[in-house]
Amino acid sequence: MNSKDFHMGRILCIDYGDSRIGIATTDELQIVVSPLTTVANNNSYMEEILTICRDKEPESLVIGMPYGENGEIGPAAKKIIDFSKKLISALKKNKIITQCYWHDERYTTRDAHETMRNIGVKKKRKMAVVDQIAACNILRAFMETSERHREKITPERLAEYDEN
Fold first, then answer.
1. Helices 123-143 and 108-119 meet at what angle, rounded to 10?
2. Residues 114, 136: contact at Cβ < 8 Å?
3. Would you give per-residue pLDDT tens digits along the chain (164 residues)?
4. d(Cα 118, Cα 107) in Å, to the nearest integer?
5. HEC profile of the chain
6. Treating both helix axes as pointing N-terminal to C-terminal, what angle do 45-56 and 75-93 enclose, rounded to 10 degrees?
């Protein structure tokens, strides 16, 4: 048995926002969660995300989902569903195979701001890293969720939103 037999693979997390997209990752053993980068939400964001996926080869990809207080799908969640459809299509087109999930992101950005305030991060630097910290918070919460409670994004699941 060699070390390859124990390979789990990274988990990548995306905190999608109208202006910026925060990305966090785990190590290959899925022990340590680290901020990775912030991508500007512009015309080239998808190519940047695909480049990161090619480089990091995640076994799973987690997308923060802003459910409402009662778990409902509001306007912000609809944006994430649209983003998820585009991302999954781009991954497939580029032959990048990874399992995709949604994970509740309520309060993660607020918590990220609070964390940075507590450790004294300067305002200018805060904007650069807040989305990465939020992605770390989403990823940590996802990792603490048992496998059977994880919300896998499947073609059937996405189709449910086409009808609404």
1. 130
2. no
3. 444 555 679 999 999 999 999 999 999 999 999 999 999 999 999 999 999 999 999 999 999 999 877 777 888 899 999 999 999 999 999 999 999 999 988 766 677 677 767 777 666 666 668 888 889 999 999 999 988 889 999 988 888 887 65
4. 16
5. CCHHHHCCCCEEEEEECCCEEEEEEECCCCCCEEEEEEEECCCCHHHHHHHHHHHHCCCEEEEEECCCCCCCCCHHHHHHHHHHHHHHHHHHHCCCCCEEEEEECCCHHHHHHHHHHHHCCCHHHHHHHHHHHHHHHHHHHHHCCCHHHCEECCHHHHHHHHCC
6. 60
Q: Per the structure block, which two tokens stand in for 78?
A: 């609809």
Q: Which two tokens stand for residue 20?
A: 């910026």
